[in-house]
UniProtKB/TrEMBL annotation:
GO MF annotation terms: ATP binding; ATP hydrolysis activity
SUPFAM superfamilies in the record: P-loop containing nucleoside triphosphate hydrolases
Listed GO CC annotations: plasma membrane
Keywords assigned: ATP-binding, Cell inner membrane, Cell membrane, Membrane, Nucleotide-binding, Translocase, Transport
Entry protein name: Peptide/nickel transport system ATP-binding protein
Limits of the ABC transporter domain: 5-250
PANTHER family: ATPASE AAA-TYPE CORE DOMAIN-CONTAINING PROTEIN, OLIGOPEPTIDE TRANSPORT ATP-BINDING PROTEIN APPD
PROSITE patterns: ABC_TRANSPORTER_1, ABC_TRANSPORTER_2
BP GO terms, sorted: peptide transport
Length: 326
């Protein structure tokens, strides 16, 4: 499959503070890929960089190639056009992204009419179709509802409907289920899975939750302290992590290998390193049970690992880290 997105050596500073370094990964057409890591590891900033939604004081280096065009050198007009036609992003708190004092139907109609030169009546029919496609019962009635009349899961379905207006090729979903209860989380994940399969939509699912990611994604990118530390197939990552960080994430989240669901989050010992002041050497070394003196002084590159993935661990060839036990 052709690469839809190719991020290479991405670095990002905001207001002179370095927050992302050497972020590299690819997404193929139609792939659903997870981007995981603890809070502050740089997942959202990576998504916002792809969308061109950074604050004015941001400076990005490297390349973010989408369908062969470098988004980092694209002008604001071109980025706006892409966001209106090829790229969409949904966020953690859907209610916060919707206007509380306007019926949701009007808000979807606005988005439709911002993209297509159609009458209000046609835009309303399109809004209704979209609500049906994201599994909302009674779409006509939902169009006239306000957010306070809808559940969090319904609001997220509406945000997904809005993200689909432009029929994007790539959907960035930033913690789309975190604010929802477990049953609704599963329904939203099923919806995303269906959309990816039926539309060939490429999805980058940003989450700290390995259970959610392992349910939906064929590959997983792990970030720590502003860097990508592994890229691997999900099944391989769960059984044979090639880096002590995803290994620790797996142990801490206790993913059950039989169901591939996360049942408890206990956290990793130690404090996440701050990307603005990263440790010398391997950024994970202060929390790594396998560190050596070399890890304290030598920065590892992202290199090929056993199983076909990539890892940023100096000791990956000698360590045998087994995944979580069922
Ligand atoms: N606009 C900004 N200005 C300065 N620092 C920022 C800005 N946005 C994010 N950061 C910092 O960059 C780092 C990465 O943030 P980011 O939001 O990408 O992390 P994350 O992995 O998505 O975490 P979370 O899961 O909590 O959303 C954090 O240390 C954060 O405080």
């Amino acid at each position: 499959m052709a690469d839809l997105l190719r991020v290479a050596d991405l670095g990002l500073s905001i207001g002179g503070t370095r927050l992302l370094s050497d972020v590299s990964f690819t997404l193929s057409e139609g792939e659903v890929v997870g981007l995981v890591g603890e809070s502050g590891s740089g997942k959202t900033l990576t998504g916002l960089t792809v969308m061109g939604l950074l604050p004015p004081t941001a400076e990005a280096t490297g390349t973010v190639e989408f369908q062969g065009n470098d988004l980092l050198t694209a002008g604001p007009e071109e980025l706006r056009r892409l966001r209106g036609s090829e790229l969409s992003m949904i966020f953690q708190e859907p209610r916060a992204s919707l206007h509380p004092a306007r019926p949701v139907g009007k808000q979807i109609v606005d988005v439709v009419r911002a993209h297509e030169q159609v009458s209000k009546a046609v835009a309303q029919d399109r809004a209704c179709d979209l609500l049906a496609q994201v599994g909302l019962p009674n779409p006509r009635r939902t169009l006239s509802a306000y957010t306070h009349e809808l559940s969090g899961g319904m609001c997220q379905r509406i945000m997904i409907a809005m993200a689909l207006v432009c029929e994007p090729r790539l959907l960035l979903a930033d913690e789309p289920t975190t604010a929802l209860d477990v049953t609704i989380q599963a329904q939203i994940i099923e919806l995303l899975r269906g959309l990816a399969e039926e539309r060939g939509l490429t999805v980058l699912l940003i989450s700290h939750n390995l259970g959610v990611v392992s349910d939906l994604c064929s590959r997983v990118i792990t970030m720590y302290c502003g860097q990508v530390v592994t890229v691997d197939r999900t099944d391989h990552l769960l059984r044979h992590p090639q880096h002590p960080y995803p290994w620790a994430l797996l142990q801490a989240s206790a993913v059950d290998l039989d169901t591939e669901r996360e049942h408890e989050w206990t956290g990793i010992a130690g404090t996440p390193a701050n990307p603005a002041r990263p440790p010398v050497g391997c950024r994970f070394h202060p929390r790594c049970p396998h560190r050596t003196e070399t890890c304290e002084s030598t920065s590892p590159d992202l290199v090929a690992a056993e199983g076909g993935g990539l890892t940023r661990c100096l000791r990956h060839e000698e360590l045998t880290l087994s995944g979580v036990s069922a």
